[in-house]
Structure formats: C-alpha cells, structure tokens
Amino acid sequence: MMNIKRNRKQFAVPLNSMSDVAFLLLIFIMLVSLINYRREVKIEYPEAETARKTSVQDNLEIWVDPAGSLYLDGVLSDIQNVENHIISAYQETPDTRIHIIADRNTPFEYVNRVLQMLQILQYRVVSFVVKDTR
Asked: How many domains does the chain have?
C-alpha cells in the first residue's frame, strides 16, 4: 500500500474588512433615509380642537399660502392645473383624498376659491390639515 499525504489547507474568511463594509452600509442607509420625497410648502398650520388622522398615501395635497398661491403636491400651480389634476386623479382612483393645507394667516377667500372648485367637481373626499393642539 502506498502512503499518500494529503495537503489540507485551512480556509478562513478575512474579517479585517468586515468593519469597513458594515461602516459603508451604515453610511448608505443613513443617506437614503434622509431623502425626503415629499415636497412641502413652509406654512404655519391652523390649530383645531379635534382632528382625525388619515393615511399619507394616495392623497392630493393642495397648499394655499398667505398670498393665495396654490401648490399641488408642493409644486406651484394655477387653479386650472389643480382642477385638471384632480379630475385625472379621480378617474384613476375615485377614493383619492384631497388635503387642503392652508397657512394660518391665509385669507379665507383663497381657501374658498379651492372649495368652490371642489364643489363644482362634486368632490366629497376632502380634508383640512391642521395642527393638533393635544
């Protein structure tokens, strides 16, 4: 019988670079979580005694600033563009909720202009966004 020696090599996973990989993953996750996909207009919210929470998804946000400018999901728009967007959103998903977000100092005539447009469209799923005082 012939005696054969087998070379058994020990394989090991290098752990030196594991901390570097973990650190890079941590940085990546932190940067991705900082991205804000929602555009907002800086306003001072009016206060309400009672409020009900709604879901954030599948909503159209109409922002009204104190000068009467309209923003649709954070993008400056005119009343006709807002109306067209509401009509197309309603055709795609009829239960789309419209959030009207107005600054505390916005004259009611500007908010009323949006309400009249929604009334003509007979849109009934509308919420006013306010600051919860609790």
From this structure: 1
